[in-house]
Amino acid sequence: MPELRELLTHGGYGDPRTYVQSGNVVLSSKEPSEQLARTSERLISERFGFDVDVLVRTRDELSEIVERNPLGDVATNPKRYQVSFLSEEPDPELIEALAAMAAPPERFVAIGRELYAWHPDGVARSKLWAKLAGQGLGVTATARNWTTVTTLLAMAEGR
């Protein structure tokens, strides 16, 4: 992660900070989100020699995601509550199929480019988690647990 921070600093981004080892970065930029994502992908490819999809959310978007918290009334363990961030809104038929995979007591809510999923019994046997963690969504996606989501927002807000 120090090399990623250095790369982004040299790429012209302000104060890049990373969280855990899964590619979470908070930084300052005046670039539009899509341009920031494409530039970051190019820099990573050139420096590290592999291609990776980059998804960007602004501080305001991340704040809205946390404020929405559609499963906050039931999600009591932040490590079992996940948000999948998508590059674009998924097909409505996919949303229906995902919702059907949520085996009680799991819960699932799709709002725009985010999918919220509560796995109270863990993810080990969850068919929903397997689908959310896989490549079959038809869009670029990455999932983070609620602890990571709220920590990234706190970092973006300078806390």
Q: What's this model, at a glance?
A:
With 159 residues, the protein is α+β, with helices and mostly antiparallel strands. The chain is built from six helices and six strands, in the order αββααβαββαβα.
Count the strands? 6
- The termini sit apart by 20 Å
How many domains make up the coordinates? Answer: 2
Order of helices and strands: HEEHHEHEEHEH
* Helix share, percent: 25-40%
Structural class: alpha+beta
Whole-angstrom Rg: 16 Å
The main β sheet shows up as: 4 strands, antiparallel
Question: How would you characterize this protein structure?
Answer:
- With 159 residues, this protein is an alpha+beta fold.
- It has six helices and six strands; from the N terminus they run H-E-E-H-H-E-H-E-E-H-E-H.
- The strands form two sheets. The chain has a four-stranded antiparallel sheet. Strands 1-2 form a two-stranded antiparallel ribbon.
